[in-house]
Specification:
Number of strands: 11
Helix content: 10-25%
Shape: globular
Distance between the termini: 30 Å
Number of helices: 5
Order of helices and strands: EHEHEEEHEHEEEHEE
Largest sheet: 5 strands, mixed
Strand content: 25-35%
Structural class: alpha+beta
Length: about 170
């Protein structure tokens, strides 16, 4: 159930049927990535842990995308599903003073994705992004591909480059 995708060829106008904006962004950038699909259970209490279990990947390699508000501005935080976001560390990482979790409706409206399927890639409005430094301990990590039950695996440095993310210790175990 995985689709391997290397660099996009041709004029980039041919997209896979049902491709999410995140996948389209990866293809347009010519990034190397793998798409992993799994059957999502709507009753699951944790989307990230469900993804890790379904893919057979250690929870420290599966990252969740959270939207916070730093000094009044929406900001994306990408942290391992095995931990939690340190709001103070996020604020510091992006040069702010105060951070709080964003209103879920505002996060969905701004990113263009639904909660549990928010991807750091291909968002409707590009937001400042911070990636937890633990990502660099792995050759690849998995993040949401923009839909519940769909993950994309890519190199952490590629994710940071494509999102303009600052890489910093923003997660707590």
């Amino acid at each position: 159930m995985a689709k391997k995708n290397g660099k996009a060829g041709g004029n980039g106008k041919r997209q896979a049927a049902g491709a999410t904006p995140a996948i389209v962004a990866l293809e347009k950038a010519g990034a190397a990535f793998t798409v992993h699909a799994y059957e999502h259970d709507p009753a699951t209490p944790s989307y990230g842990e469900e993804a890790a279990q379904a893919l057979g990947v250690a929870p420290g390699r599966v990252f969740k995308t959270l939207v916070a508000e730093v000094d009044g501005a929406l900001t994306v935080a990408v942290v391992p599903v095995s931990g939690s976001l340190d709001l103070k560390a996020l604020a510091t990482a992006v040069g702010g003073k105060r951070a709080a979790m964003a209103d879920p409706a505002a996060a969905e409206r701004t990113t263009g994705y639904v909660r549990g399927g928010i991807s750091p890639l291909g968002q409707r409005k590009r937001l400042p992004t911070a990636l937890d430094a633990s990502a660099r301990a792995h050759p690849t990590i998995c993040v949401s591909a923009g839909r519940r039950g769909l993950e994309v695996e890519l190199a952490p440095d590629d994710l940071a480059a494509l999102t303009g993310a600052v890489v910093a210790a923003i997660a707590r175990p």
